[in-house]
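new request in #modeling-help
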Amino acid sequence: MGLLKKIFTAIRGGATEAGEAFVDANSIRILEQEIKDADGHIHKAKQDLTTVIAKEMAASREIEEIKTKVNEYEGYAISALNKGDEALAIEIADKIANLESDLGQQQEAQSSFSAHANRLRELVKKTERTLAEYKRQLTMVKTTDSVQKATSAISDSFSNSNSKIMSATESLERIKTKQREFDDRLKAAETLDNESPDTSLDTKMKEAGIGPQTSSASSVLDRIKAKKGA
Amino acid sequence: MKIKQIAEQLDKLSVESREGYDFENQIIPGEEEVLQIILVGREEIPVYLTQTDTQILCISYLWGENEIKPESKGELIEMMLDMNIPMPLSSFARIGDQYAVFGALSTNSSIEDIAHEIVTLSDNSLEAIDVMSEFLK
C-alpha cells in the first residue's frame, strides 16, 4: 500500500516524463533485501518450530511414561499395605511423590513448548504475509520500471526511424482503407471466377465432344504415323 | 521465455494460431527489450510486447493527449472506465501523454495464448479508436 501511494505522489508531481523514474533504483534493492531477510526469518522460524514440536512430543511421551509408572507404583503400594508392610509402603509412596513432582515439571514444560510452538506458527504466518506484500510491491516497482524503460525504447525507436506518428483517427482510416481495398480485390476475384460463361460453355462443349480437341497420346501418334507415311 | 524466444516462436506459429494474420516482428533494443509486432495491414498501430519477472505486457498506443478535443476529455475518460470491463482481455491505460490499451499475461503463458492476446489487443485498439473518435480531433 505504501508503494502505490509513492507512485501516486510521483505521478501527481508530474514525474511522467520518459526516463524519469517513479521509484528510484534503491527501492528495488531495498525490497529485494527485505524479501531475502523475510525468507531467512521464515526459514529460521520453521527450524525453531521443528525443534520445539520435537521437544513438546518428547515431553508428552515422558508424561505418559511417568503416569504409567505412578499407576504401577500405586499398585505396589497397595500390595505392600495388604501385606502389612507399612515401612515399605511409605518408601513406595515417597517414590510416587517424586514421580508426581517430575510429572508436574514435565507438564509445565509441555505447555510451555506448546505455547512457544503456537507463537512460532503465528510468526511464520505473519512473516509469510509480509513476504507476499514485499513481493507484490517488488512486482509493482519492477513493472513500473520496466514499462518506463520499454516506453522510452519505443519512443527512441520511433524518433530514430523518423516514423511520422499519425493521429489515431488517421491511422484507423488508413487501416480501414487497406482493409476495404483488400476486401474489394477479394470480391472482384470471386466475381471474376463465377462470371466466366466462356469457361462453362467450353466445359459443356467438351463434355459433348464438340469444339477444339485436346491432343491425346493416340492422336499424336496418328499424326506422326501420317507424317512418316507421306 | 525471453523476448527473442517469443519472437522466434511467433514466427513459427500456424496461421490458425495467428488467427489469419501475418505478423512482422522486430526487436527494439534498449535497457528493456521490446518486441514490436505488426499485423500486416495494420502497420499504423503496432503491438509492443515487453516482459518483467512476473508478467508479459502487450501494449498498443491509441492517441496522444494533444489529439483529444479539450471539451470532451472528461467524457472520454469516463467512457474508457466504463468500457474497461466489457473490452475482452485488454484494459485502457495512459503512459506519459499517450493513451494505450494493454493486456498482461503470466510469464508461463503458451505462445498460442500470447498470439491470441496480440490479435485481440490489435482488434481492441482499432475498435477503441473507432468508438472514441467522436472525442478526438
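bot summary: Chain A has a mean pLDDT of 83.
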